[in-house]
Specification:
Length: 378
């Protein structure tokens, strides 16, 4: 473990990065935002065939320990997670997902849906978003490659309606301030065995759908059709309240050199979708994204073992904040006086980074491999 840390830079501070202007972005001391942070997570044991779990981890910053509050065994590998008000989680299976469940704050499964019983050809594609009255799931109809949005009852999880996603392979969706759905369509044709094919037909896009009826309101695309838009996160600048949507991308070019040099971040400002920087991870692969310091974003790449920071004050740069093997799942972490920190899952444990708080590494409580995503619980 010590050798692994020695081989890679562990943490950097914003002062060392030198990427922010000297005016308008002053830092204030950040203490602990509560002595314990609860994180909804998905993991398995250290071996590839071990059981998958979803549950809640408790990071005790004073004791410098990480513990499992509860763990729910899952039918197969999970993907999207959504925290619930009672301390429970909504979880769905990885693409092509065949199950969707809700557990309560004690880890008891309260509802579970078998997607094959709803449709012979439609499967879950990635993520869940909860609206005011209903919840939505991204889905794929494998009969015709069309992306779907499942509209579901928030309690029973049963499907009430099904909308066109406005593109191929919808992966993650979020709600905007008006209650409309912003959907990242990955654009990759896939078989029911999750094999990619006909990549020359890729059609990735960001769309806005009416949150009441699914009507396509607007669509945005990048010039490069081989950039798959996958994970998304909102981030708001404290000065002026400007809101940005960050889009983590994964390159699907046939040529390895083009993949390696492809940008991994797109930013949507409400009107335009752009790639502000071609700085990347050397693989063209962003695994997760979360809001970070002052309207910025953190992006992870498990392939490169790095989490990087992008900030609108220096839009042409990505700066490494954590470099450890298997840097993957991300969640925001607020300091006592200002948000902007990031919780990063790595091969050896949880890393907490904040621009004005000491870095912390909490080892996993037992041998375990974290999955793609986790979420900070309210």
């Amino acid at each position: 473990m010590n050798n692994a840390i020695g081989r890679r830079r562990f943490l950097l501070t914003l002062g060392a990065l030198g990427i922010f202007p000297k005016t308008g972005l002053t830092l204030s001391p950040a203490g602990e935002a509560g002595l314990v942070t609860l994180i909804g997570a998905a993991w398995r044991g250290p071996n590839a065939g071990d059981t998958h779990y979803a549950g809640v981890l408790a990071a005790d910053w004073e004791r410098k320990q990480l513990e499992i509050r509860y763990a729910v065994p899952l039918p197969t590998r999970p993907h999207g997670l959504v925290p619930q008000a009672d301390g429970g989680l909504l979880v769905n299976g990885v693409r092509p997902g065949t199950w969707l469940l809700r557990c309560d704050g004690g880890g008891k499964v309260m509802q579970q849906v078998k997607v094959e019983e709803e449709s012979a050809s439609v499967r879950l594609s990635g993520h869940i978003v909860v609206g005011r009255d209903v919840m939505y799931t991204t889905e794929i109809d494998y009969n015709n490659d069309r992306g779907r949005i499942g509209v579901r009852d928030r309690v029973s999880l049963k499907k009430l309606d099904e909308w066109d996603a406005g593109g191929i392979e919808p992966h993650q969706a979020l709600l905007d301030e008006a209650g409309h759905l912003i959907v990242a369509n990955g654009g990759v044709p896939r078989t029911l065995a999750d094999k990619k094919y006909d990549l020359q037909r890729m059609d990735s896009s960001l769309v806005r759908l009416d949150g009441q009826n699914g009507r396509l309101l607007r669509q945005w695309k990048l010039d490069d059709p081989r950039l798959s838009l996958r994970h998304i996160a909102w981030s708001q600048a404290p000065v002026g309240g400007k809101t940005f949507l960050g889009v983590a991308m994964q390159a699907e070019h046939d040529d390895a050199a083009r993949r390696a040099g492809a940008p991994i971040l797109a930013v949507f400002d409400g009107e335009q979708l752009t790639t502000p920087t071609r700085a990347n991870d050397g693989h063209g692969y962003a695994g997760d994204i979360t809001a970070a310091y002052n309207g910025g974003f953190a992006l992870s790449s498990n392939k490169a073992g790095v989490a990087q920071l992008w900030h609108p004050g220096a839009p042409d740069k990505l700066s490494a904040i954590v470099e450890l093997d298997d840097a993957y799942a991300l969640a925001d972490w607020p300091g006592a006086s200002r948000a902007g920190g990031v919780l990063v899952a790595t091969a050896i444990g949880l890393v907490r980074w904040h621009p004005s708080a000491p870095p912390v590494l909490l080892p996993w409580p037992q041998p375990m491999a974290l999955d793609n995503h986790w979420v900070r619980m309210a």
